[in-house]
Amino acid sequence: MSASFAEHGYLLIEDFVSEDWCDRLAQRAGELVAGFDADAHRTVFSTKTVAHAADRYFLESGDAIRFFLEEEAVDDAGRLNRPKELAINKIGHAMHDLDPVFSAFSRQPQLAALGGGLLRQPLLLQSMFIFKQPGIGGEVSWHQDSTYLYTEPMSCIGFWFALEDADSSNGGMLAMPGAHKGPLRKRFLRKAAGLTTETLDETPWPDGEVVELAARKGSLIVLHGLLPHYSSPNRSLRSRQAYTLHCIDGAAHYRDDNWLRRGSHLPLRGF
Ligand code: FE2
Fold first, then answer.
1. Which of 171, 172, 125, 161 is nearest to 146 (CA)?
2. CB under 8 Å to 79, separation ≥6 — which residues?
3. What is the torsion angle, in degrees rounded to the nearest 10, for the CA atoms of residue 205, residue 167, residue 83 and residue 42?
4. Given this model, what pLDDT does residue 51 score?
């Protein structure tokens, strides 16, 4: 399995978690959203406009549980144009440490075993519950996760759980097999003036194969931090909920100009 990961930059493992676990996570996310005051925090998450990057609610979400809205769910006057439970883009970024249900899911033994086989000293850095709402679930443009979670040497690995069936009809994931062997193209980082994206390497994405990672409910996709991946908007009538967990190696240096930060009250922990 680790030979395939090294060759292709990803693994797709069907039936990694039970349907019951998927439903429990979805239910817990719904409970968290019910407690979210959408009038107080209208931060839209977009991979295209990055307006969220100037927003303290986003900037300080590395050690919190916060809620980000879909671009198309907020009108020009800043009002939600649909119920909040259908307007949420994602919840992030420390639910795996702050919420007991997400913590238990994120530290289940078979995941700990897998993570321990891929990283020497895995630390659970970032979690997100991604709603990919029917009709409006936004595009996530081609990117490498190490752009956002940078260590020296690079060690970011993403664990992406399909909580519902995900395919090309509802914004499932595409990837470029083997392209993790190329360089990191960009870094998203903190500067005195705020968050910015810096180009590290102008090498274009390779022209090679693009594969659709169709993932049935309960599947796990493991992503190398340098693997380019993408998901299209969800224009279908069904949602495509997913939970993602990103780990880094505790033996690597996590740069303090990374966008995602934690206060000393909540140190990173392993599985
Ligand atoms: Fe990603």
1. 125
2. none
3. -20
4. 60
Architecture of the domain defined by 2-254: Sandwich (2.60)
- Considering only CA atoms, which of 23, 245, 262, 231 is closest in space to residue 133? 231
Å from CA of 147 to ligand 1 middle = 9
Q: How far is the CA of 138 from the centre of ligand 1 (A)?
A: 13
Query: How far is ligand 1, taken at its centre, from the CA of residue 140, in Å?
Result: 8
Does residue 100 have a cis bond before it (omega within 30 degrees)? no
Non-local CB neighbours of 39 within 8 Å, separated by 6+ positions: none
**C-alpha 39 to ligand 1 mean position (Å):** 28
The pLDDT tens digits for 63-121 are: 999 999 888 888 887 788 889 999 999 999 999 999 999 999 999 999 999 999 999 99
Among 53-57, 192-196, 244-248, the least confident range:
53-57
Q: Give the distance (Å) from ligand 1 centre to CA of residue 144.
A: 6
What pLDDT does 136 receive? 84
Torsion of CA 111, 116, 117, 119, to 10 degrees: 120
Rounded Cα distance between 239 and 187, Å, is 30
How much of the chain, in percent, has pLDDT values that exceed 70? 96
- Give me ligand 1 centre to Cα 46, in Å: 13
Give one word for 76, left, alpha or beta, with left for phi > 0 and alpha for psi -120 to 50.
alpha
CA distance 146 to 246: 10
**Phi and psi based region of residue 60 (left: phi greater than 0; alpha: psi -120 to 50; beta: remaining):** alpha
CA of 230 to the centre of ligand 1 (A): 7
Per-residue pLDDT averaged across 46-72, rounded?
A: 80
